[in-house]
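Please review this one:
***
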Amino acid sequence: MAEIEIGMGKTGRRSYRLDDVSLVPNRRTREVDLVDLRWQIDAYEFDLPVIAAAMDSVTSPATAETMHRSGGLGVLDLEGLWTRHHDAEVKLAELGDHGPDADAVFERLRELYEAPVDPDLVTQRIRELHAGGGYAAGAVSPRRVASMADILRRAELDLLLIEGTVISAEHVSTQPDPLNLKEFVRELETPVIVGGCVSYQAALHLMRTGAAGVLVGVDGGATATSRSVIGVGVGMATAIADVRAARMRHLDETGVYVHVIANGGLRTGGDVAKAIACGADAVMLGSVLAGAIDAPAPGWHWGRSSLHHELPQGQLVALETVAPLAEILEGPAHRADGMTNICGALRQAIATLGLESVKDLQKADLAVTGG
């Protein structure tokens, strides 16, 4: 892609958001009932290409079970309140006692996150995920991987996410034993998804660690403020397309297909369809699922980085509660903003283009409508 001159001696690439692109209809259409949304990563198959974000306001053992029944996947934050408090559900419900007072809610959350992660609770929560009938998927941050390595090796996780605002396969550190992501991923029997990243080179390095999937996105979500705080961010449409190109190179070099998962700023069925058309295999949703009536903390949404003591890169967000989680995923929709029946909208988009599957949608034509 050609670079644009920003000023004398400095150029940059133009990046596009999902709002800047649209799907181009084809010469045929298809019945919605003939559309296949199934998605598979490693040995695990799902009816929907949708993952509930590893955020305490999005995924609990209960909502992970709902995601499983609907055909998606819920990922529990293994550093979150669920592994710090035995009665996390009760403590999250108490946030409602503060009404619309965001400052009071934020301070209460700070207090709750002061409790340390309990290794026994990590094991217990993973058992609860299995008891719900679905796959057990959990997430940790890169800085916690080393200290939790033994727990993660013993845990009966089906999928592990190593997730940060920006993550790399090479991290320069003053610590004597910084995380060697490549070694850790390859010695762990559990398939690993790593991210986030937004560039071709970063994605290619992460794929070469042996990861089963890569999360794409920086500062796209409702809670994120990384673009304002540290100036980092790339338009999601461009980021997905670049990582898609890295996937193709890695596939040519190794014969191994690494899944691309769009993460951040996706709120509607149209966003999901366009993310897949840019090259994603699946999407991770946060705020739109946090708006469920049966979300862990109805009306509030925050990320792990929102509570950082020294440099928060996120914010607490007040949300309108929209509908039950299952209705947000698969309807029926009772509003026309695209934030309910997201997967029904995805099916309709694929059918409107005359296509049959998520894989077909990755080959769809796009038009640049903004930027």
About this structure: The mean pLDDT is 89. The first strand starts at residue 3 and ends at 7. The longest helix spans residues 236-254. The radius of gyration is 20 Å.
